[in-house]
Each structure stands twice: as C-alpha cells, then as structure tokens.
Design brief:
317 residues; alpha/beta; Rossmann fold; eight-stranded mixed sheet
C-alpha cells in the first residue's frame, strides 16, 4: 500500500507542478505529464523501479484523475466509470468469451478510457492480442485516453470522432460503453438510424448503442451501462424498433440502488447480441444485483450468470 501511495504522490506532484508552472487546466496537465514520462528515459526508469503491475498503474492513474477532477470541478460527462462496475463488465464479457483470443473491443463513447481499459486489462490476463478502439467527440478526453493507454502499454487506438461515425475496415468482437444521456442535435444524421425520433431530437444514448452494434461482427455482444428505465422512457418505442430488427436483448442487470442518489439516476447493464447464424433469442436474464461489496451476493450472481451463459452456442477462435 505504501508503494502505491508513493507512486500516486509522484505522479500527482508532477501534474500539480506542471499545472502551476504553465497555468494549465488539470486534464491538459495530466496528459502532458504522462507524455513527458513516456518520452523521458530517466522518468521511465523511475516508474519502472516502482515495480507495479499494469493493473496497479491503472488504479494509480484513476486515483490521480479522481483527485484532479474533484479539485477542479467535474462535468457530468467527465466522470469515471467506477472500478466495481468495470469489473462487472469484465466478468460478463469474459464468461461469454471463455477461450477467445485476438479480441477487438470497441467503445464509441470512450471518454477518458477507464471502462474500456479496465475490461481490456482484465481480458488480457489469460488471453493474447486483446486490442481496443475508442472514439469520442471530446478532444480533451481522447487526449487523456491516448496518453493513459500509452503509459499502460495497452494496444489501443483512440480518435476524436462523433460516436455515430462509422469506422471503415473495422469490425469489433465486443462493444461496450457508458454513453452520456441527452439529446443528439443533428436530426439529419439521426435519421439514418432505426432508433431516431421523427418529432424531436433523438436520445443520444439510443443512437450511440445502435451505432456501436453496427460496428460489431455478426453474433457478437454489446454491453452498455444505461438508465434503468431505458426501455420504458420516452422514445423507447423507437429503440424497440432497432432491437427487433438487428439485435437481441439477452440480459438486464440492475445495479444496486445504493450507488445512486435517486430512482431517476439508477442504471443497469443491458446485454445485446447482434443477429447472426449462431445467435438467437434466449430467455432474457433479468437480475437485480443488490450489492457490489457483498461477496455472497456477487457469488450468487456469478453462479446464475455462468449457468445461463452456457445456453449460448458460441465457439472460440
């Protein structure tokens, strides 16, 4: 624990010094300091001498980001997906891909990359060639994600792009995301999607889910962190049109209510599967996870999920 604290203080102090000297905001300072460490031999040696695993370094960088964002004030779309939820993503996706190698992950609302990199690292522990691609319309967030991926030595590409933009010559094996909730302003572009609304601006998270699932291979899964009322909210009828045409809704996993300030902000994980020759509608697994801290509750969920997941006729590569 002491070594973790030393590493945290080393990175955080470098960022604070850079921020004060150059009169920059936190995210820009974080990005520039990480690149300085990556590119300077002496700085790299100092980091390597701390002997932390890549997973520990990701946790350290997450703590640094949390500290800096808290001190500076944080926009809603600049918040980090908590690790507990990230590990839940990883468990579900690992279980659905028990022996797969060479997986390509895709997040079209990648933000600072914390969710994507948590899953990528977890899948890489017993698999080879796990790569990722993340896009986001916010350049400052993409710069953070790119620097973090390089620091952690993760094979990841990140681009400043609208989340609805098609990625040419790229098919993902897995889509995952926590898309921001709101309205998408470009009605002309939204009209290209089944989930668009004809009477008003379309919900951005609806469009982002559809765009992400268009980018994955046939039979492949997408896992998304969404408002729990996703399928009963206004415009849900438009989303159900997409669900009936192109994907199967296979699972809904409600997160503990204690994680959220009120019922309106509650979220769940929604598991989708793209239509294909090896995909069919299964009995939807709807499970309320009561706690992410109670070991017995988590063991109960993992047992039920593993048994349910055996119904998928997935074949590893």
């Amino acid at each position: 624990m002491k070594n973790i604290e030393t590493a945290f203080n080393t990175i955080a102090s470098k960022i604070d010094a850079y921020k004060e000297k150059n009169q920059k905001l936190f995210l820009e300072s974080y990005t520039n300091v990480l690149w300085e460490i990556i590119e300077e031999k002496d700085a790299i040696q100092e980091i390597e001498n701390m002997n932390h695993t890549p997973q520990e370094w990701r946790n350290i960088l997450q703590l640094v980001l949390l500290k800096g964002l808290r001190e500076e004030g944080v926009q809603q779309n600049h918040q980090l997906t908590p690790d507990g939820i990230g590990f839940l993503f990883a468990f579900i996706l690992e279980t659905l891909h028990p022996s797969y190698q060479n997986l390509k992950l895709f997040d079209n609302a990648v933000g600072m990359g914390n969710l994507l990199f948590t899953v990528q690292q977890s899948l890489s522990l017993n698999r080879e060639n796990i790569s990722s691609l993340g896009i986001d319309v916010d350049e400052s967030l993409i710069e953070v994600a790119e620097a973090t991926a390089q620091f952690l030595n993760l094979p990841s590409e990140t681009y400043v792009l609208d989340g609805l933009s098609p990625i040419e010559n790229f098919e993902a094996d897995i889509a995952l995301s926590e898309p921001a909730v709101g309205f998408y302003p470009d009605d002309t572009r939204a009209a290209l999607f089944s989930s668009h609304d004809k009477d008003e601006h379309t919900y951005a998270h609806h469009l982002l889910i559809e765009a992400a699932m268009k980018q994955v291979k046939r039979n492949s899964f997408g896992l998304f962190l969404l408002p729990s009322n996703f399928l009963s909210s206004p415009q849900s009828g438009n989303m159900k049109t997409f669900l009936s045409r192109e994907v199967y809704l296979q699972g809904v996993f409600q997160l503990p209510t204690s994680l959220f300030k009120d019922k309106a902000s509650e979220k769940s994980l929604f598991l989708l599967q793209k239509h294909g020759e090896n995909a069919q509608q299964q009995q939807v697994l709807a499970y309320p996870i009561k706690s992410l801290k109670d070991i017995n509750e988590l063991e109960k969920f993992t047992k039920i999920f593993k048994e349910w997941a055996q119904s998928f006729a997935q074949k590893g590569e």
